[in-house]
Amino acid sequence: MTDTHPHTSSDGFSHRWTWPIDPHDSLRPSVLYFEHECLVVNKPAGLLTQSPPGVPSVEAQTRRFFASLGQNADDAINNSSPAGGPSDPDYVGVPHRLDRATSGALLLGQSKQTTRKLAAQFEKRTIKKIYWALIEGRPPEREGTWTDWMRKLPDRALSEITNSTDSAAQWAELDFRVLAQDSNLSLLEIHLKTGRTHQIRLQASARGWPIAGDAEYGARLGFGEAFADHRRRAIALHARTIDFWHPKTHRPVVVHAPVPANWHEFASAHAAELQPLLNDSRVV
Length: 284
Hints:
The protein has one domain: Pseudouridine synthase. The chain is globular and about 50 Å long. It has helices at residues 58-69, 73-80, 112-124, 199-206, 261-270, 275-280, and strands at 7-8, 30-35, 38-43, 103-109, 128-136, 143-152, 159-162, 170-182, 185-192, 237-245, 252-256. Strands 1, 2, 3, 4, 5, 6, 7, 8, 9, 10 and 11 form an eleven-stranded mixed β-sheet that branches. The protein is α+β, with helices and mostly antiparallel strands.
């Protein structure tokens, strides 16, 4: 009989794993969930999901993490792969990505077969992704749906709203709910129905509510550390929850990613009413 009860991650799960230190970058993910070739990490803002060789990324760090498991047969057999491990010890599957400036739950695969099955779930949109966004402004509705036609600008890491007749147009849809408001800021919970480039960032900005820290889309407030390299700067967008069907255990998995420290620092400075909710996000 199939177990239909979801496995929900807890913050204590990560304490079982030692993440390899990247000597070139202080930004490191933390393990939220790892079982039978499915890994979910909490990606820090400022770290690329993938990158060319020699540039720090989650993919490169995960490759070292998987390699370190080969030194511990018990971990490799009991918590990751069947005895003998994956056929390609250097393989890291990346079935989806998060923007460099975005933090939160990122799902990875340890074998090609597992990654293909996860990628198929993304393609069929059966994986549920929930984001938290701190926006500048107060939407008049407490919940609703945003729909737009949008396109990625050629040769630029930006997107824009367009119309349905544009040959490059893509349909973008999300549901949102206001979790809390304070002053001129709102905390939104967003269910992403389509996964377009910069979709949440663009759709929020197009309505006059840019995400805090997102200067590329019109934000006035800074967020997190003001790195000299603007590519390292964070925005207040966090992949809070990922809900998927495990291709090996054949049961649902729900993983929550606690918000990083800069969210608490921002709330203390700009939106104290949001702090209790952010504190609760540490308990999953």
